[in-house]
């Protein structure tokens, strides 16, 4: 007896979960493109504001002002991760992302209206606060919408916008700058972002069972193997207590914290100091430095895309903890070698080998994301996913905020390559987080403890 056409259609699984991943990818792409166009146009608005001279390397005064504004932006971004994760657990991903995407896009457009240090610092600070919750939202999308077979793919394929965004910001921004100047770049990206925020709200839902396009086969697939079919909504006091205990009182939670702290410094070094490095040492033009940096940043995108399947495969072969240890320890060790070698080729002003080494390092860095970053929400029990990830990512970005001050000083005092390669120390710290704290026994204790805390909170409510 053969199945009817209707029966076959009923059995076939829908794939709406990947629509949510795609929408999240677009949001993160613009989150990072909107940051990178600011870095790209630093020489242009520095001249416009009277901080530096046209055609010359950025002056020490310009570098000081840029470092301070980056610090303000980064501090606002980092701090708002903490309430942003909690807000996401309360509002849900649909309302949270539409709101924050629209806000940061509006402030991106308003950057075109700035005219001095104070106006730029205020607008960029507000923009940074609005961008803060994007990664806690991505963690909750992955927790709610991904099956247990592909959490790394869902998180990293959405998060690969972090790597594509700088490419679009640098290459697209360079082309738009040539047409409309630095103010036109911000207007274009800001207005387009507002339109995309509206599209997010129209197409997304908080949970799979709420989306009209999800059929039963896909819903069963997403729920299969999960201890809780859907995330509960806990009281705010319970949410914060559970999240803080997981992050700061479990050995595995502390290990995850160390990886986030160290990755923050490494990531911000590549995101915000690669264009000034290329401009000052090799290119000496906004357009050329943008294209050189975009070429290197392509490796960030490749590493991010490969990270999900790579780490899901390691987990399927070696188990969750060992697979994720291998997925971070091996690439980060190779990255240390690549960045260390780039110091010698860079100080010798060898452009091609320096660019190749930094591209290799960038790809290896993002190959770890499917391991260390997925740990940040995988260790969280249901109901506190975005809050836990918000704490981790907030601390990561606090380190990123201080990175702008530290490297700005090193650029001025010792030169670009000493500043850039200071990230090697934090690569070693990243390895320590895995080697010392994250093991099979410590991970199991942390996860069991988290579920026990959530169940107690549910029973009490």
From TrEMBL:
Localization (cell): Membrane
Ranges where the Major facilitator superfamily (MFS) profile domain occurs: 20-442
Species in which this protein is naturally found: Vulcanisaeta moutnovskia (strain 768-28)
Keyword match S-adenosyl-L-methionine: no
Entry GO terms, CC: membrane
Record key words, sorted: Membrane, Transmembrane, Transmembrane helix
Protein name according to UniProt: Permease (Major facilitator superfamily)
TM stretches of this protein: 16-33, 58-80, 101-123, 180-203, 242-271, 291-314, 326-345, 351-374, 386-411, 417-437
SUPFAM superfamilies noted in UniProt: MFS general substrate transporter
Transmembrane helix as UniProt keyword: yes
Database matches in InterPro entries: MFS, MFS_dom, MFS_Na/Anion_cotransporter, MFS_trans_sf
Molecular function GO terms recorded: transmembrane transporter activity
Pfam families: MFS_1
Topological type in the membrane: Multi-pass membrane protein
